[in-house]
Structure formats: C-alpha cells, structure tokens
Specification:
Elements lengths: L15 H28 L4 H9 L18 H14 L1 H20 L2 H13 L4 E4 L15 E5 L2 E12 L6 E7 L8 E7 L5 E3 L13 E12 L3 E2 L5 H37 L1 E2 L2 E2 L4 H29 L5 H26 L10 H11 L6 H13 L5
Parallel strand pairs: 1-4
Antiparallel strand pairs: 2-3, 3-7, 4-5, 5-8, 6-7, 9-10
Amino acid sequence: MPDRAPQPVDRQLPTDEARDLISLVRDIAQREIVPSAAEEEDAGRFPCEVFALLSESGLLGLPYDADHGGGDQPYEVYLQVLEELAAARLTVGLGVSVHTLASYALAAYGTKEQQAEHLPAMLGGGLLGAYCLSEPASGSDAASLRTKAVRERDDWVIDGTKAWITHGGIADFYTVMARTGEDGPRGITAFLVPGDAEGLSAAVPEKKMGLKGSPTAQVHLDGVRVPDARRIGDEGQGFAIALSALDSGRLGIAACAVGVAQAALDEALSYAGQRRQFGRPIVDFQGLRFMLADMATQIEAGRALYLTAARLRDAGLPFAKQAAMAKLHCTDTAMRVATDAVQILGGYGYTADFPAERYMREAKVLQIVEGTNQIQRMVIARHLAGPEGR
C-alpha cells in the first residue's frame, strides 16, 4: 500500500532564519509536547516545563524587539510558529498567543523606561502573562467594565473581578483594564499588575468542555495597589489599547485554529489510510476522499487569510478587518474540520483513545475567545457598511 502518512506543512517563509525557527519548533513539539499532550489534557495539567523551555528558546517574545528580549520576527513568521504549537497541543499554542497579547500593551504603549524595566523578563525571563479585559457582566460589551482604579498620590488602588482569564492564578503578570473615569470606553486605563500583588487572587478554574490543561479563572482584585509607574499609556487610553491588542490577538487565535484543523486532518488522513473495509483502505472511497479534499481546501484558505492579514500588519497597513475575517473563517473551519475528522474515524472518533474528539472539543472554544464569531461579523460589517444606526 502506498505511503499516505501526513507530511509537514510546506510553508512559505521569508528567510533562512525563519525556516530554522520552524524546524526548532517542530523538534520541540515532537519531543516535548506531543508525547504527553493527551494524558496531560485529560488530567487538566498545565505544562509549566514546556513554557519554561519555550522561554529559554526565545519563543515567548517572537514578534517583539530584540532590544527588549524579543525575537524580532514578523507576524507572518510568529503566527506560523503558533500554528505548529497549537497543532501539537492547543493549550501550548493558545498560551503563547495569550502571553503575547498580555505583553502587547507595554511593548506598544509603554514608555522607554517601562519597557527597559519590564519587557526583558516578560519576553525571555521565564514569566507568563495574562490579559484581563472581560468581566462577569461585560464580555462582548467590554466597554461597560466595572473594575475600578482610584488614584491615591503616586499609587492606584484597583478593585473588581475579571472573568474568563487564561492563566488566571498562575500568571506572573496581568495586563488589567480598569475604570479610572467616566462610563464608556474613554474612562478605561491599562495597568501592569504583578502576579504576586497583595490583594490579587484567583477563583477555582472553570470546568471546561475542552482545553482542560489551560486554566481559565476569575481573577479578583481587592484593594490591589500599583504605582503610577505601572500605568500603561495615558489615563483613559486603556480601551483603545485593548482593542489594538485584540486585533493582533485575533490573528493568534486564527493561527491556533488552523493548527487544530491541520492536526485533525492529519489524524483523519492517517486513520483512513490504515483502516480497511470491503477489502481496501477507506481512503480509496470517493465520498471520503471528497471530505478530505474539502477539509484540506478550507485549511489552506484559512492559512492564506491569516497570513494576508499578518503581512498587512508587518507592512504597517490597516489590518483590523482582515484580522476579524481570519478569526471568523479559521475558527469556523477548525470546528467543521474537527467534526468531519470524528466522522471519518467513526466510532473510534468518539472515543478518547484517538485525539479527534479532543480536537473537536477544543475547536469549539476558538469560536468564542477573543471576540465571539458573531462579534467578528459585526466588526467586518462595520468596515464594509459603516457603524450601525447612522
């Protein structure tokens, strides 16, 4: 029987350095992530050792300046690294994306002094970040957040609760959006809060359908005091910072979604090449071959879409519309492809003995995080037709 084993993705990379980087990531994934992924996800275990290795290898600050410990890589390359990590284990790929999101505010809006003081440790010093925007009563309507920061001389005192925080309870730093002024988006300011700050605590992690190894928890801020030197940007600029961060963060989710979809396709293709029915491999049946062809086409379209948005970002051009499109298309694709992979494996696909069911459970959350896909459609429509109610 001819070899039908899935092959690594043939990537179009801009430099030899980028090709070496992808090779390093694939080696780490196969040696350190894939062998224990299923067991650790089932046990709800966060891979602390893997993140320490990623930090040591320079993979937690890829799109940021080398002057501050980053990797000086374009988003076009960084996102393909994320895809490789997510294909190995979504907890890792998503974790790197969230850490990058949490570092964005300081890297893009911090003063030179703040960046010099904090970024080297955040990007390459073994630290892990979390991004705190959502609250129990303000998810999609993030501008209505109620967490409050009150100025006391040279300090700010923060009180409130954040919800759905990836790395909640284990993060070394939190980028927190809090209200410092009037209601609405103009009254929000960003702060860099240490993970060990007095008054900061996390609730018991949520019991989730998938992505069990990645802790998601409410974060409580009870009189947390931070100096004004940890305020990021101007007072009242926090919501603009948050939205700017999410444009880039959505590309991270899109890349992770393509990684999950690729892993699901690879699993389906491998199984279909080995499983025999009616005297031949099931991959020889036209109906199944058409399913595989559709899955592969959707994945390639998603990869092209997120890379187009990344290249716009790298060129300093507007990319918010394309980022929303990429997040929408890639996460919907991940859900379709993962579901089809379960179908191709049949009864085995519904068991935990094969990873297809895990991919399907994980794909679902990607349609929700960092702006639901309904919100992405609203963002896209605003770019096309202008604001509602004009």
